[in-house]
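Narrative of activities, Objective 1.

The group set out to show that a structural description can be obtained from nothing but a protein's sequence at a throughput compatible with the screening campaign. Below is one input-output pair from the validation batch, recorded exactly as produced.
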Amino acid sequence: MLVISDFKKQDKDPTRMQAVQERFRLARKFLNPLYPLIIRGYGSSKGTVQSAFGRAMSHTLTNVIRGDFPDLWIEPSLAKISNGMLLPLAVNTITRHGNRIQLAWDNTGSNIRDYSQWDDQVILCAYDLMAGQAAINEHLILRQDAQLEIDLPSILHGRAVHVYLLLHDREKKLYSRSQYLGLL
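Output recorded for this entry:
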């Protein structure tokens, strides 16, 4: 008779465990300041707040964390802070003048189809990765407006910020996939 329950206990590699722990630490450190956006941007599909954050964490661990242990780093351009079926904006220009960010996009009817509408709300997120601070626009900006100007809050004055853009419908149920607009 063949014994099938005799498993060899695998030796735990401490370096491998440290690598996994470090990847999770980096992912949490990156996502925590964006938590309010993530639970809305990923939570539009069925599920709990934890499953929304879990989906963002999964994407970050597999796509955003780069390198080999111990030289791991975050690639912010690959991050997703929302995921959905609304069409993204066709961004023409983004500029920063001091502590003001200006954004312009094409709002022709050709990019408003399917579930997207003229009154989709635009959210711009400025994220200082080094300080772990993130801020979004507080005034209502719609897809049809074709431009946005915001003043950064004092905690982001003079700091380099990664800029993300996302949209949601009037009921805040449908979201677009976030767009990375660069480091300003």
